[in-house]
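User: quick one, sequence for these tokens?
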């Protein structure tokens, strides 16, 4: 996990076979109806190619996240899956 934006918000990325990634973005809501509520936005699609990471979250409550960039070298192998700090 990697903390970002506001304290307590984070993204978790799991690398699966053939560079497929799964995960989610957890953030605090910022609209009138969800202000201060912790919201999870799960990946709709994602891929890791060498050190290039890309993912898009499933739209939820008018929020969708897209990310394209380099992943950190900090990886820890856990069983058959890899978790990335990005």
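Assistant:
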């Amino acid at each position: 996990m990697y903390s970002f934006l506001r304290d307590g918000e984070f993204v978790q990325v799991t690398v699966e076979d053939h560079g497929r990634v799964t995960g989610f973005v957890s953030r605090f809501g910022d609209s009138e109806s969800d202000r201060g509520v912790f919201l999870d936005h799960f990946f709709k699609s994602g891929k890791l190619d060498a050190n290039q990471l890309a993912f898009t979250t499933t739209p939820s409550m008018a929020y969708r996240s897209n990310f394209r960039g380099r992943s950190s070298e900090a990886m820890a192998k856990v069983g058959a899956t890899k978790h990335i700090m990005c």
